[in-house]
Write a structure and sequence with these properties.
single chain; mainly alpha; 4 strands; two-stranded antiparallel ribbon; 152 residues
Length: 152
């Protein structure tokens, strides 16, 4: 599918790169506050960063194989305790995600995938790699605001 003169998948990869750039920038502004929890039911900024850095590893095989990857097994990442560790992990897996996105057949973007979270077109499902970090960029920005930082 073309978006202007660009393939959707190429545009999506550019958006993902921008989203993660903003994520790391906002996270850096929370250095020293990465374990903050507004309430017991909330996650910490570090937990959000771990999620964002590890989700591409799940998305890549799902997109490549056009079926939901297994969610079995251990999904803890005790080695991811810093912003830099999360960023390094993301950098190590993003190439596989981007390859899966780029190789996805353009004529299948509107086909559907069934997930535990609902039914999505592949176009929408792949966009999770963009909107999930952007969602957390907003959460981190709000936490920054709670601590008096309005530079988000």
């Amino acid at each position: 599918m073309l978006v202007g003169t660009m393939l959707y998948t190429d545009a999506l990869i550019d958006l993902i790169e921008e989203a993660y750039s903003e994520l790391w920038e906002n996270a850096t502004k929370l250095e020293g506050k990465l374990d903050f929890k507004p309430s017991d039911s909330n996650r910490t900024p570090m937990e959000m960063l771990v999620e964002c850095s590890t989700v591409p590893g799940f998305l890549a095989p799902t997109i490549r194989n056009r079926e939901l990857a297994s969610m079995e097994g251990d999904h803890s990442y005790p080695e991811l305790k810093t912003i830099e560790a999360c960023r390094a992990h993301f950098e190590s897996v993003k190439g596989d995600l981007y390859d899966a996105i780029k190789s996805f057949p353009q004529d299948k973007l509107k086909d559907k995938i069934e997930t535990p979270w609902g039914t999505f077109t592949w176009m929408s499902f792949m966009a999770y790699a963009y909107w999930n970090p952007m969602y957390h960029v907003g959460q981190l920005g709000y936490i920054q605001l709670m601590h008096g930082d309005t530079s988000y």
